[in-house]
């Protein structure tokens, strides 16, 4: 588990812009600039100056010896170090955020006394850190392993729990040899990651964010108040995508469900008024709670006219978002853009990506801000179509992609994706950064946060998604990115699983030699439309894991077809298997992960039925009995996140 982060300073937390300095001072003399660079910054003496404590004069004279005819210029450089160093705009907020995330934060820097003396006030950000070492004081410098060791000793750090950032590969390598995890970074990479976190990079004013608010974030006027504060807090939050009002408490009914109910009842000729009145009351309650001077009576009438008409189911369902969008636009006092005009479907309800992109950018690029309701769009004839349930996530993602947003913020009622299911593990931690691929692995195993289709439009455009909590807006939430140098604090990023799988276990002597054996077996499953979840195999054995519900109805036919398709020595069925995915981009680089995982399960008395490590080394799938499912997830969480040894 990563507990501490260690930063190099030059080119990571502070710009060390010597090239720019030389160019500015001696713009017309590239040859002299080269000589100066070789005599100073690029010389062996420069590095030695980091490793030894010496006075300014001693330090300067050594460079002059390298190029005596340039004494004047060298003296100028050595007395103007303040013009060469500058603190990056993101440095302080980054340190603060890391601390807020619970990491201890240190520096390990090759820095000369003279440079220190001239830039001491700029280095005041180090006071917010938990400590660190400057090379000149210790007379040791990177990549000398003793320097890393000294840092760990002084601050009682276990190298295994340290993550190290440096702009030089050689220093990162040395950190790895010292037992730390590390990554080589460039400062623009840092700035980009920082901006994803909404941290001060000085670029906020030009950033563009699409912000989507889920149903619970807009369930009543109190929630609308929170949303307004969030939107108005950052000028970059320019395009707002609302869902329909969701549940205010667990017994409440979502507006979308009520709308479906109205339509279905009307269609079957039943009275729908009770549900319809509830819908009107909810919206009118929000309007009056916000003190707005608007009426939706015309809209209610129009919806009622459509209720029960053959093609109007999607239209009716979409009105929750439509009406909520109208209210939100009035409340935020920004334009309302109807999704029916910009999100395009064909007449069969298939989403049209290309036209949508064109329409979205044409309609929104000259609007500084707008509210666009989620969940629906329309075909050429103006007939409304919706995405599948939860589809406002998709709208937000499409708009982000089409506008090339810097960030897609998805505001909901949890502080991000959790490391494990809260119904199994008490108060699990949120994941701070997760990659799209990791998220897909976890979502597939049931960790639902986002509509599955919401990933693709932003992933394609390289836009990160930030899951945030409307009720706790200062929580950083989870950042979902394509790739990241951000360490996962616990080796594993998350753990999730599903129960009720069946394993079909087949044995055949010399299976290995029979060309096409596995394929013949798999064809049988394909023929019956069964999706195969996992297929671990041995030399003479193969097991096929499928969902029990899907399998049971077709069981006898499938077994009979397998017997006909291939020759079998032995076939066995096991029907109460749960699959657990332990997911983490960091697992590949940390030795002993599988060992810890299996030891924790053994300790918890869980019998492992199957192990399958994905070839990406991003996940390890384990099969256990259904009855061991909860215990296994808890054991894995405990060993990796709580650091409890098995
Ligand atoms: N209101 C729709 C639903 O309940 C869409 C959404 O909330 O994203 O599914």
Description:
With about 650 residues, the chain is α/β, with parallel strands linked by helices. About 40% of the residues lie in helices and about 20% in strands. It has a seven-stranded mixed β-sheet with strand order 10-9-8-13-15-16-14, sandwiched between helices. Helix 13 (about 255-265) packs antiparallel against helix 16, helix 17 (about 355-365) packs across helix 18 and helix 23 (about 595-605) crosses helix 24 (about 630-640). The two termini are about 15 Å apart. About 45% of the residues are buried. Residues about 195-205 have low confidence and may be disordered. Aspartic acid (ASP) binds near residues 256, 390 and 391. The site of aspartic acid (ASP) has 13 residues, from helix 18.
Briefly summarize what is shown:
The protein is α/β, with parallel strands linked by helices.
Low-confidence segments, given as residue ranges, are 197-205
Content-based structural category: alpha/beta
What share of the residues lie within helices? Answer: 40-55%
User: Helix tally?
Assistant: 24
The geometry reads as globular
Q: Mean pLDDT, as a whole number?
A: 91
How much is the radius of gyration in Å?
30 Å
Strand content: 15-25%
Give the secondary structure arrangement, pairings included:
Elements: E1 4-7, E2 14-16, H1 18-25, H2 30-39, H3 44-51, H4 56-66, H5 71-79, E3 85-87, H6 91-100, E4 104-109, H7 113-119, E5 131-134, H8 135-138, H9 145-155, E6 162-166, H10 169-177, E7 181-184, H11 187-196, E8 209-213, H12 221-233, E9 237-242, H13 255-267, H14 273-289, H15 297-306, H16 313-332, H17 353-364, E10 370-371, E11 376-378, E12 384-386, H18 392-403, E13 407-412, E14 433-435, H19 436-444, H20 455-461, E15 465-469, E16 478-481, E17 494-507, H21 517-527, E18 541-547, H22 548-565, E19 570-583, H23 593-603, E20 608-613, E21 619-625, H24 629-640
Parallel strand pairs: 1-4, 1-6, 4-5, 6-7, 8-9, 8-13, 9-10, 13-15, 14-16
Antiparallel strand pairs: 2-3, 11-12, 15-16, 17-18, 17-19, 19-21, 20-21
Helix pairs in contact: 1-2, 4-5, 13-14, 13-16, 17-18, 18-20, 21-22, 23-24
